[in-house]
Design a protein that fits this description.
Layout lengths: L1 H21 E2 H25 L2 H15 L17 H42 L11 H17 L9 H32 L1 H23 L4 E3 L11 H42 L7 H23 L1
Antiparallel strand pairs: 1-2
Helix pairs in contact: 1-2, 1-4, 1-8, 2-4, 2-7, 2-8, 4-5, 4-6, 4-7, 4-8, 5-8, 5-9, 6-7, 6-8, 7-8, 8-9
InterPro entries: YdcZ (IPR006750)
Keywords: Membrane, Transmembrane, Transmembrane helix
GO cellular component, one term: plasma membrane
Length: 309
């Protein structure tokens, strides 16, 4: 689950860099998102559709949508559960649009803040495969630790001269974080029926379809595309997405949405710190180290709460 967070941070950096290389405006961000999701969809289609066991998982998902489970009045899965990929599409699109302007650190603080709060709500209303998990005081404290961790890390990063634009793009990341919590809950339900790879394939199919629509709409907005970069690492965003979606689809069934979210937040903070250390143009501050420590404390509190209940 820590690896999930590290992959999310790395994907944010890669997709934002790809958008910057492609051009400018919404068009470049949308095209970068289509490249990221589309490449993942092609790879996953080859893996899922060519394997009898994976195709059987697809059939189980379709059966769960049609047939009642154990005499229940409604199916084990509802059509809305298949739409988790929309959250992933929104997240990847926001990476290409926002990270190049406000930076990966501020993007992550807004994203993880939304993810932390929404995870509490998602568990409380029972959207995840584990059913209803009430908001206890320790769980709320753990979420606050996570929000405090990423807030401390990017303290003072808002640019006063472009405050309105920064807040708007940070709000975009905040909504992406909220949708991420819902996506993880829906993915857990599908994974319990069809398996993690089938779940991930469904996410990429739905997400790529939505991003293609966004790309078409982007031609109505200002912007331009200059061309595709030649370096291979600009195109690994889809593979990174496959990794963190598949891991999340399994982990959410065991630990719940909140614990998965908190662990991934810790991974995001640590990975962001490593990226900054490796970047000679960035000075690592003590606030960043303190933020990483707070994130780890939040994870420990959440896991301890999980064991007691």
């Amino acid at each position: 689950m820590l690896l999930v967070g590290a992959l999310i941070t790395l994907q944010s950096r890669v997709n934002a860099s790809l958008a910057g290389q492609l051009g400018d405006g919404l068009r470049a961000g949308a095209l970068a998102a289509v490249v990221s999701f589309g490449s993942g969809l092609v790879l996953l289609s080859a893996v899922v559709l060519s394997h009898p066991r994976r195709r059987a998982g697809l059939r189980r998902v379709l059966d769960a949508l049609r047939d009642p489970a154990d005499g229940a009045d409604r199916p084990r899965l509802r059509p809305v559960h298949l739409l988790g990929g929309l959250g992933g599409a929104f997240f990847v699109a926001s990476q290409g649009i926002a990270v190049g302007v406000i930076g990966v650190a501020l993007f992550i603080v807004a994203f993880t803040a939304g993810q932390s709060v929404a995870s509490l709500v998602v568990d409380h209303v029972g959207l995840g495969p584990g059913g209803h998990e009430p908001v206890s005081r320790p769980r709320a404290v753990a979420a606050l630790f996570a929000v405090a961790a990423v807030t401390v890390k990017v303290l003072g990063d808002l640019d006063g001269s472009h405050l309105g634009l920064s807040l708007l793009l940070a709000s975009l990341a905040l909504v992406a974080g909220c949708l991420q919590a819902v996506q993880q809950a829906f993915n857990g339900k599908i994974s319990a029926v069809g398996g993690p790879l089938v779940t991930t394939w469904n996410n990429f199919l739905v997400g790529t379809s939505a991003l293609l629509v966004l790309l078409l709409v982007s031609f109505l907005a200002p912007g331009h595309v200059d061309g595709f970069p030649s370096q291979w690492w600009y195109y690994v965003g889809g593979v990174l997405g496959i990794g963190f979606i598949a891991i999340s689809a399994v982990a959410v069934q065991i630990h719940g949405v909140l614990v998965l979210g908190l662990c991934s937040i810790a991974g995001q903070v640590v990975a962001a710190e490593v990226i900054e250390v490796l970047d000679p143009s960035v000075d690592v501050s003590w606030l960043g180290l303190l933020g990483g420590l707070l994130a780890v404390v939040g994870v420990v509190v959440a896991l301890a709460t999980r064991r007691r209940t």
